[in-house]
Amino acid sequence: MNRNVLLVGSSGGIGKACAAWFGSRGDTLFTLDRERGQDAANPDDYKKVLAGVTHLDVVVNAAGSVGVGGIEDCTVAEWRRVLDDNLTSAFVACQAAFSLLRRDSCVVLFSSVNGRHGGNRLSGPAYAAAKAAIIGLAKHLAKDLAPRGVRVNAIAPGPVATPMLDRLSSEEIEKLRATMPLGNIVAASEIAGTVGWLCSPDARSITGMVVDINGGMWMA
Predict the structure, then answer these.
(1) Share of the chain above pLDDT 90, in %
(2) Exactly one of 4, 127, 153, 218 is catalytic; which is it?
(3) Order of strands, edge to edge, in the sheet holding 28-32?
(4) Is 127 tagged catalytic?
């Protein structure tokens, strides 16, 4: 397709799957990731990555991190870290891309099933709050950018087979699986395929939506 794609969080499990999906279709990727010493919540890093870029057709923010425990375990520093990694990064990515978006451009942000049902102590209160707020951000942007012909949607995955899930014990993973009627942990390739579809002409009338991919854990 030869589109210009800004992919934030490109080295994570979902980010790598998205990079493979867009790359296999001939798109040009502009990537940003902590593994390369970049900060997804720092506007200056976007200026460097996007220097000389004339337009963006796709923006995908897959950056994020989790916390743990309950509110009594979450320090203010931890709260700010998790919100920056998830919510502020989405805001900064969209702001950095704003002037480069054109008609038929697409933005995909990442919420989570935790943002739908309040999460749990496996990922903590800051993560649930950040992922819920991303839904509000996506809906605001969908309305605000619609007159420019730009579409904005969010994906809310359940447990996905990525390194982020590796932090959990086998028992914790099985407990999560038991809450999923389909009983299968989501593959990163499924998420990437949905991102690709949202950014395709087949979804040209879809904006402001949250796509839940969680094996039935949350049925909106």
Answers:
(1) 84
(2) 127
(3) 28-32, 4-8, 56-61, 101-110, 151-157, 210-213
(4) yes
